Amino acid sequence: MAFRAVMSRRVTNRSSDIGARWMSTWWGNVEPAAKDPILGVTEAFLADPSPSKVNVGVGAYRDDNGKPVVLECVREAERRIAGHSNMEYLPMGGSVKMVEETLKLAYGENSEFIKDKRIAAVQSLSGTGACRLFADFQKRFRPDSQIYIPVPTWANHHNIWRDAQVPQRTFHYYHPETRGLDFASLMDDIKNAPNGSFFLLHACAHNPTGVDPTEEQWREMSYQFKAKGHFAFFDMAYQGFASGDPERDAKSIRIFLEDGHLIGIAQSYAKNMGLYGQRVGCLSVLCEDEKQAVAVKSQLQQLARPMYSNPPLHGALVVSTILGDPELKNLWLKEVKVMADRIIGMRTALRENLEKLGSPLSWEHVTNQWVDP
After folding, report:
1. Which among 139, 251, 271, 297 is annotated as catalytic?
2. Of 37, 93, 324, 369, which is the most exposed, with the fewest CB atoms less than 10 Å away?
3. Transmembrane region positions (predicted)?
């Protein structure tokens, strides 16, 4: 019995040693991830003790003292909803009211597509979540497709479609020498892409260049998309924040709609309502008819289910309260124009001061960005 007990302890100890070695190597091959090129700058800013530091990382609106701004329409909406709602889950598709009001901004107040119920739309985790949902939808239902992404673009676009395992191609966009749009090369890439390709387009205020096509150039692009049967997916993160006029900033989308395209749109309220931390957005896909829209929405919800199940409530209530009330909506339109005009004014001042200092370079691009020259 003693011999058996000793052997049992040896076997047990040996098993424990083997188990310990396995457990110690579970994550031994994990290396530190590379810092995000945008968020990493903010981390460095927070760690810097200098009192005169400036954060040039995440693009968030600040007042003259460098402090975050909360719009008055948002404060009023929060006052109205405080204590008047429960904390139950939203449906997988999110707040119906918020989605309805959001579609009006993108497709038009009296859009025939909304009336005909041809739009499949769900609340998303801001614009990033909308892009990711669409990337997964593209992978699931067009598995042999790829996505054409402009050079340059918001860095996270590449991460989103990469992690959704959608092959990426690029198309010309910015011309460094002229600091403007490389329209000729852009059109060549659209023409040379295989028929039926997916293209990621920035609806307005192209990130990071701020360079947008003119209205006429958008029309030429739309015509060529039609000829090639391409699909346009618009990322619209700055509606209203670019020019101060949400209608003007949606012009690119309206042009494609007028030309009969079926499109997808990612919308966000981070910039134009200052709801950065609330993560309120919307993904919409224009379909051939109501039946197809119902099917597409059901699949978008199924994709959302294992990701996050349901979108958050508070930010959606803020948005729907503002857009659903004429008084608050008018206040928002005034406030977003104030923000846009201030940014445009700061660009003008920057250019004027650089020129007064005798810079030999041309700084016209600084005032030409975001608004047509």
Report:
1. 271
2. 37
3. none
Told to judge if 271 belongs to the known catalytic residues of this protein, a careful annotator would answer: yes
Q: Which of 182, 189, 212, 235 is catalytic?
A: 235
Is residue 154 part of the annotated active site? The answer reads yes
Residue 38, Cβ density class (10 Å: 0-12 exposed, 13-18 middle, ≥19 buried): middle
Q: Would residue 202 be called left, alpha or beta, if left means φ above 0 and alpha means ψ between -120 and 50 degrees?
A: beta
Structure tokens that stand for 171 in this block:
């198309």
Q: Mind listing the pLDDT tens digit of every residue in the chain (373 residues)?
A: 554 554 555 555 666 666 666 566 788 889 998 888 777 788 888 889 998 887 777 678 888 888 889 999 999 999 999 987 788 999 999 999 999 999 999 999 999 999 999 999 999 999 999 999 999 999 999 999 999 999 999 999 999 999 999 999 999 999 999 999 999 999 999 999 999 999 999 999 999 999 999 999 999 999 999 999 999 999 999 999 999 999 999 999 999 999 999 999 999 999 999 999 999 999 999 999 999 999 999 999 999 999 999 999 999 999 999 999 999 999 999 999 999 999 889 889 989 999 999 998 888 888 876 543 3
Choosing from 136, 154, 189, 297, the catalytic residue is 154
